[in-house]
Amino acid sequence: MKLTLHHINLSTENVARMDAFYRDVLGLKTETDGLPVLEKGKGYSADVAFVTDGAIQMHLAGRDVLAGFKTGQIVNPVSRGHIAYRTDDLDAFKAHLDAQGVPYSDWGHTAVQGWQQIFFYDPDGNVIEVHEVAPD
């Protein structure tokens, strides 16, 4: 099972302001390749801007403190933001978390079409996502 850093998600009350800041001040570019297709009717419907440094994406997501309640999940990835890793074997990674005694929320395909996602907390309460892209 391989993990690679895929994106950093920051939650915000003003997506346009954050998008402008990261493009204008930090010089990031608008990401156009490999963007997730958001499932806006399944519990999270806020706007998201996508920027990149050319290697790692940043998802600038509208904060939604109720997304966990709307989807029936304990871990809410858009209340404070999260870091995300992509894996080639999510089932193996879930088995690894189970063996380590780390609880997680399995969002499945609830938020992003074609991505199987889980979310869990690190010891300080930061949210971590691990996802696998479903084969075509």
TrEMBL record:
Transmembrane segments: none annotated. Pfam families: Glyoxalase. Residues 4-133 form the VOC domain. It comes from the Bacteria. Signal peptide: none annotated. This is VOC family protein. It comes from Thalassococcus arenae.
